[in-house]
Specification:
alpha+beta, five-stranded antiparallel sheet
């Protein structure tokens, strides 16, 4: 079961979600996960943290702290993109 928090998405949030959907993103897992897009550090980590906390982005599989894994958009995130 996914934990989802109601969040109003900005244009930048939607851009980040689209980049994750395209398979270009990785998360470094931790209490405040870091996102890499095309191998480069995402410049808006506060947006990333908000999207992860809202349950819209997650690691592709179970992750240990510090582990770098592909990022995926959750079902809730996909629904937000089409809304």
């Amino acid at each position: 079961m996914e934990l989802v928090v109601d969040v109003e998405l900005t244009a930048r949030d939607r851009s980040i979600l689209r980049a994750v959907v395209s398979g270009r993103a990785e998360l470094v897992w931790g209490s405040e996960p870091d996102l890499y897009l095309d191998g480069r550090f995402c410049c808006d980590q506060s947006a990333v943290h908000r999207l992860v906390r809202a349950g819209l982005i997650a690691p592709a599989s179970e992750a240990s702290v510090g582990e770098r894994l592909p990022a995926v958009v959750t079902t809730a995130g996909r629904l937000e993109l089409v809304a």
